[in-house]
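Researcher: Good morning. I'm working through a list of sequences from a screen, and I'd like to move beyond sequence-only analysis. For each chain I'm collecting a predicted structure so we can compare shapes side by side. This is the next one on the list. No need for commentary yet; just the structure.
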Amino acid sequence: MQDIKFIRENAEKIQEAARNKNIDLDVKELLVIDDERKKMVGKIDELRTRRNQLAEAGKSGRPTDEQIAEGKKLKEEIANLEKKLEEVEKKYQTLMVKVPVIPSEDTPIGKDDSENKEVFVWGEKPQFDFQPKTHIELAEDLDIVDFVRGAKVAGYRGYYLKNEGALLVMGLMMYALEKMVTKGYAPIIPPTLIKEFALFGSGYFKGTEYDSESDNIYQIATRDKEMDGSDSKEKKFLVGTAEPSLLAYFSGETLDEAKLPIRVCGFSPCYRSEIGDYGKDNKGLYRVHEFFKVEQVVVSKADLEESTKLQEEMVGISEEIHQDLGLPYRKLQICTGDMPAGKYRAFDLEAWMPGMNRYGETGSASNFLDWQARRLNVKYKDKDGNKKFAYLLNNTALPSVRPLIAILENYQNADGSVTVPEVLRKFVGKEKIERRE
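Model: Good morning. Structure tokens for this chain:
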């Protein structure tokens, strides 16, 4: 969400940003509706003032027939205007949620993810002297993932992690958490069943409310009970990442600038409907409905230079994890056409996956400036006592299953075994995963 005053002062730049981000938005239309909205609010206030004057006059004696008639007329006019204002307000909010953050100057201009810019490559892709297997073949041969029973129990994209597969994934998560703690990030296990405001506030709805046809989120059908036993009116959703829970932790609060930046990392299950990706990556672990992830969130003061440094720090930690795991990867700077409305600057990390013969996304780092903070009302008080909206940043420290794909496919051996990365051996309890007799 952007400030309407800022939008007016930067209308052309925002229109250009919308065009570059493939967002269907007419900024001029928004400003016309805002003018209409303000006039209606002013007129309603004017009529209410007159109605209050009549009410005060009536207290001193019996109101005249003219005053009674005027009072009825005012009541009708106010009701009619309020109804019209409600419709105008809906149009206004529908357009406001589309208003993009103007991307950073170094963000590549591009139409879609094919024009993301490769900015760094690390590691040597393995050269096998045998026919390498896919992670699906390796997982089944080594009895560490069961896709058949997963589909039987959980349906399409379901799976069971077993034996060393379970240990590898938990090792990945523990290793990432330990790394984050050593880097000064406070560990949190956040709720994964959350209210609507947290998802809207963090930008996980494409519009003003949940749309099951376009939002990659599961809504819970069952209603909760309130403390008094009554049915809750709150809609609840399963998170696709810990980010909304971690950001909403600070919602409606005014923080102390002296305590910024605040660094936290959250471990959670993640649930994604993949509604917009039906038919993509149908087999294996690359695109699934549930997985684990360690997520980073930083709350920063409204300082562009500082937030940029913090984003580099966050991405750097994820890169360090990939290097510790010995996974060849590349870093991409995300172009405008692959960037949603709220992002100012974004990077992806992609690990090399030999079985797919391509890089696959294993992390994403984003700087939203104050876009999410305005929606969630996250502020801080500066040294002069002024309240300002904070800058919010997030990054995938490490997901569970995609790095598992990369490990299985990069560390496979000619005999069908898989060598365990050195940093994970204490969690798995062995150096090599071999076929069971």
